[in-house]
Specification:
This protein is an alpha/beta fold and about 450 residues long. The protein has three domains: about 120 residues, Methylthiotransferase, N-terminal domain (Rossmann fold, 3-Layer(aba) Sandwich), CATH 3.40.50; about 230 residues, tm_1862 like domain (pyruvate-formate lyase- activating enzyme, Alpha-Beta Horseshoe), CATH 3.80.30; about 60 residues, OB fold (Dihydrolipoamide Acetyltransferase, E2P), CATH 2.40.50.140. It is built from 13 helices and 19 strands. The chain has a six-stranded parallel beta sheet with strand order 2-1-3-4-5-6, sandwiched between helices. A six-stranded parallel beta sheet has the order 7-10-11-12-13-14. It is globular and about 65 Å long.
């Protein structure tokens, strides 16, 4: 059996692709190993969303090529967004790589590795059309009790700063039946929390022409035995169906959390970004969401330093963040990405200005988060135990329903007995608060 080491870079959506590749490999004559120095084959699933991600991907590929030069690795395969973005030009730029697979070709991984030399092309890169289904083998690589569920692939929006449509193709949804089947399989493996991901979750089902939408999907997933929490990510603000908001409000398993990237609040910036909405429109959307689900936690992201962003534009954004009081906010500086309309816009903002604005906005959000977290001190809340913290195996951590894995904060657990284990839902009294994380005591009693 050939030993394979796989490295997955980038977002949770890319992680799901990697998990499908691992599933296909484990179904064949391959053994997965954690150490690349022990691998006969190394696979790098790349990200290329922004320049730093591309640089990390290239650095990782070159580092793994060192194992090939050392003679321990016989074959190096590169997959994912960087391949889709730069195409066959990588064949000359990365002669160390044996095969390249684009974002719509990762299901060929076993075919490529099983083929003899010269039997298959060096590159498989085409218009992305593939999306895995419930029949695709997949090995969950996240926490044993938590998993990502990719509900659709691709995006039909044309935001000026984003290259995702080029990398992932047009929007294509999986069926409700397919997703429910995969969720059942995950539940049978011990998963109690599923996080729904895609490039544009709001548009889910529009291409199916069978009446399926996010609300119907959430209600169907809520019927899966064993699943306790369902969380939605990457919901484009325009076109949120009422069925979605009602499902969040009414279904106990659907947590009151919505990840909705807004990107800016200034009218000129939103127009230049091609977002199709104004600040006033965003405010109406947020008011509607909170009217349906008053206790909802909203996570959003913003871009500072977009071409043409003035001090006035940034002041509007700062005022918007201060007035809305979001529970979770991420702030990114704009990167001038080749192949996007924004890369050609005049008025590129200096890097030091971008960083200063990022710091200022994050400071504002930190104050908001600290205030909201302090209001939780003394309350008894439900926490999903994740297991030992990264800092120390002696400290357990968990998350509230309003804290998504990897991107939001944690609840550090004290007063923990041996009966408290990862995957349990526990009642916790919050004792201390910081802008990002919380501390709490696990209360006596059985898991919830």
């Amino acid at each position: 059996m050939e030993r394979v080491h796989l490295i997955s870079l980038g977002c949770p959506k890319n992680r799901v692709d990697s998990e499908v590749m691992v599933g296909k490999l484990q179904s064949g004559p391959f053994e997965l190993v954690d150490d690349p120095a022990l691998a006969d084959v190394i696979v790098v699933n790349t990200c290329s969303f922004i320049q730093p991600a591309t640089e990390e991907s290239i650095d990782t590929v070159l580092e793994m090529a060192g194992h090939k030069r050392a003679g321990t690795c016989k074959k190096l395969v590169v997959t994912g967004c960087m391949v889709q973005r730069f195409g066959r030009s990588l064949e000359d730029e990365l002669p160390e790589v044996d095969h390249f697979l684009g974002t719509g070709e990762y299901h060929r991984i076993d075919e490529v590795l099983l083929a003899r030399e010269g039997q298959v092309p060096r590159s498989f890169i085409d218009t992305p059309l593939y999306i895995h289904d419930e029949l695709s083998p997949r090995i969950n690589s996240w926490l044993p009790h938590s998993a990502y569920l990719k509900i659709s692939e691709g995006c039909d929006h044309r935001c000026a700063f984003c290259i995702i449509p080029t990398l992932r193709g047009k929007m294509r949804s999986r069926t409700v039946a397919s997703l429910v089947s995969e969720a059942r399989r995950l539940a049978e493996q011990g998963v109690v929390e599923i996080n729904l991901v895609s490039q544009d979750s709001t548009a889910y089902g529009r291409d199916l022409n069978n009446g399926a939408d996010l609300g119907a999907l959430l209600r169907a997933l809520a019927k899966v035995d064993g699943i306790r929490w369902i969380r939605l990510h990457y919901a484009y603000p325009i076109g949120l169906p009422e069925s979605l908001l009602r499902a969040i409000a009414e279904e106990e398993k659907v947590v009151p959390y919505l990840d909705m990237p807004l990107q800016h609040a200034s009218g000129p910036m939103l127009k230049s970004m091609r977002r199709g909405v104004t600040r006033e429109g965003q405010e109406r959307i947020l008011e509607r969401v909170r009217r349906f689900v008053p206790d909802i936690a909203i996570r959003t992201t913003f871009i500072v330093g977009f071409p043409g962003e003035t001090d006035t534009d940034f002041a509007v954004l700062r005022d918007f963040v201060g007035s809305q009081g979001f529970e979770r906010v991420g702030v990114f500086t704009y990167f001038q990405e080749d192949g996007t309309p924004a890369a050609l816009l005049p008025g590129q903002v200096e890097e030091k200005v971008k960083l200063a604005r990022q710091k200022e906005l994050m400071k504002l959000q930190s104050d908001i988060s600290r205030r909201k977290h302090k209001a939780l001190v003394g309350k008894e809340l439900t926490v999903l135990v994740d297991g030992p913290s990264k800092e120390s195996e002696l400290v357990l951590v968990g998350r509230l329903a309003t804290q998504a894995p990897d991107v939001d904060g944690l609840v550090y657990l004290s007063e923990v007995g041996p009966e408290v284990r990862a995957g349990q839902l526990r009642k916790v009294r919050i004792t201390r608060a910081a802008p990002h994380d919380l501390v709490g005591d696990v209360l006596e009693g059985p898991p919830l």
